[in-house]
Design goal:
- The complex is a heterodimer of chains A (175) and B (184).
- Chain A has 175 residues and is an all-alpha fold.
- Chain A folds into two domains: 130 residues, no CATH class; 38 residues.
- Chain A is built from seven helices and no strands.
- The longest helix of chain A has 39 residues.
- Chain B is mainly alpha-helical.
- Chain B folds into two domains: 96 residues, no CATH class; 44 residues, no CATH class.
- Chain B is built from seven helices and no strands.
- In chain B, helix 1 packs across helix 2, helix 1 packs across helix 4 and helix 6 packs antiparallel against helix 7.
- The two termini of chain B are 28 Å apart.
- The mean pLDDT of chain B is 84.
- Classes of the chains: A mainly alpha (175), B mainly alpha (184).
- At the A-B interface, helix 1, helix 2, helix 3, helix 4 and helix 5 of A face helix 3, helix 4, helix 5, helix 6 and helix 7 of B.
Chain lengths: 175, 184
């Protein structure tokens, strides 16, 4: 593995989280670009597996950033990718939360609300398609992804069952 | 009739820490469902509407939406230190669990069955994300402007693979300005 520049990793993640409207799914493509395509720190397959491990673990799905850092450089790496997740989010949220409780109907809150919502959704759609392209190698993979989405939209089943079925399909060599 | 602000329950920092620990440790496949269950139904700290309002705000701010919700709830009930207590409970356990799983993966990840199982789960996880986006898109108004901005954001990131900072930097000010002008 190449030596990892933790300072650069920290700063890049910090900058990303400052603009990460839409949350972890919205910055997934850029993290993939930085870690896999530009710096070649992880392979596509490692990236997909790390992302999935974090999805399977209890807790917010965003913890995949912790796992990327840990995979690259142990505890220091985990800190370098996790602390940037906390700092901009908590400081800005405290500030805006405070203002919002005082002026709930201010025009700026309404403009931001209606203006940024569609961008967020567009970014998340990009994340979903990039993830599908990353993990699926042939039509059977795409079929499982699309079936999953259809089932989730149509049935109130626990997603854990679907993840279990996916694991089974993988072991049986279907994917 | 009701005055939700006036019957805000009193919540200690320890309760915030424990409740968000419980939420995060039961959050398989997304934290949102469990956050609503814990805060609205189990603890009754928030009404449905209060929960929806805080979540909307959390979603609009940079960062993970449920993490931002955690900050807002902690701050509402116990100020700065309440926010710190809630965030600690929410993140400390997943941080340790995910690293534990990373260690296990380094030992067992090379087993072909584990790789195959993970490949199958990755495929399902991509479908889960797609379904979530489709659900979210349903709330967009049926007018052209929001959909154009959504399509630009998708094209810039998903098709052209431009850096996120450029795309947001170009689109967000225009979108907010136009929404401001339209007053909708």
């Amino acid at each position: 593995m190449d030596r990892v520049d933790l300072g650069a990793l920290f700063l890049h993640f910090l900058a990303l989280w400052c603009v990460a409207v839409g949350g972890p799914s919205a910055i997934l493509p850029d993290i993939h670009r930085y870690v896999v395509e530009v710096n070649h720190l992880l392979t596509n397959r490692e990236f997909a597996e790390i992302y999935t491990l974090a999805q399977v673990a209890p807790g917010p799905n965003v913890m995949y950033v912790t796992l990327i850092g840990w995979h690259l450089a142990g505890w220091a790496g985990a800190a370098a990718t996790t602390v940037p997740l906390l700092v901009p989010a908590t400081t800005l949220t405290l500030l805006v939360g405070h203002l919002n409780e005082r002026y709930p109907n201010a025009a700026i809150f309404r403009a931001v609300r209606s203006g940024l919502m569609p961008i967020t959704i567009g970014l998340m759609f990009a994340s979903a398609t990039i993830l599908m392209r990353t993990v699926n190698h042939d039509w059977r993979g795409y079929l499982i992804s699309l079936l999953t989405a259809a089932v989730v939209l149509g049935r109130p089943w626990n997603p854990l069952w679907l993840l279990g079925a996916g694991a089974l399909a993988g072991v049986l060599g279907f994917v | 009739m009701q005055q939700p602000e006036s019957n805000k329950p009193s919540v200690s920092r320890l309760e915030l820490f424990l409740t968000f620990s419980r939420i995060t440790l039961s959050s398989f496949g997304g934290a949102l469902f469990w956050a609503r269950l814990g805060l609205v139904e189990r603890q009754r700290w928030l009404s449905e509407r209060e929960f929806a309002e805080l979540l909307t705000l959390g979603q609009l701010l940079p960062g993970p939406n449920v993490l931002n919700l955690t900050v807002l709830v902690g701050y509402r009930f116990a100020g700065w230190s309440g926010a710190a207590a809630a965030v600690s409970g929410y993140l400390i356990w997943p941080f340790l669990v995910v690293i534990g799983m990373g260690m296990a993966y380094q030992h067992y990840g090379a087993l072909p069955q584990v790789r195959q199982a993970l490949a199958g789960m990755s495929t399902v996880a991509a479908g889960l994300l797609l379904a979530t986006v489709i659900k979210l898109a349903m709330v967009l108004p049926r007018r052209w402007r929001p959909w154009i901005f959504g399509a630009f954001a998708f094209a810039g990131i998903g098709l052209l693979r431009w850096p996120l900072l450029w795309v947001i930097g170009a689109l967000a000010p225009c979108a907010v300005f136009m929404a401001w002008r339209a007053r909708d």
